[in-house]
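It is worth pausing here to work through a concrete case rather than discussing structure prediction in the abstract. The textbook approach is simple: state the sequence, then state the predicted structure, then interpret. We follow exactly that order.
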Amino acid sequence: MSYQPQPVRLIGGRLCLDFLNTADWSARGDVVHEKLTGPKDLAIWCRAVSLGKRPDLDDPAAMGELKAFRASLRWLFLAAISGEKPRKNDLTRFNQVLDFRAPLAPLAVRRGAFAFSKDLSVAQTVCLSALGVLTQPQEIERVEICPSKDCGWLFLDESKNRRRRWCAMETCGNRAKARRHYQRQIEGRLE
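Step two, the predicted structure:
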């Protein structure tokens, strides 16, 4: 069987949110559908978000750690959105990834603009993006969760009136509209 890469959909509005959206999530926080099935998918995602080559892309063992970090990061965002205290182990994992004791420069200049240093791992790069969202009230208060069943994607609502409801209208929004229409048809027949 040939390798079929997962399509990359960037709807989060921030790098860290698009990283969290590399899985579909149940209401309980379990991964329903994994989009990072291996290093090839991760490399495709990194190219899609303009990260390019990262030091951990060729390390198959790093995938498990990256997915564990993604789950912890998601719980941190859910806690921040709901105003709850984050779980200690999730905060610890975040801080461990963010630890820059190694001589890494988080920013570099590429083509006249600032970019994340290529020396940073995927998790460190995502962590820096998350830090910017989690620590800025005007950012975190705009983070929403798609209410569609088994989606759970996070996105920054940058709409003028702050009424964006779905991760993407063409997928989750249209499915919800179709379900409501079908339900109205059924209810109309029962009357």
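Step three, interpretation. The radius of gyration is 18 Å. Residues 98 and 128 are 7 Å apart (CA to CA).
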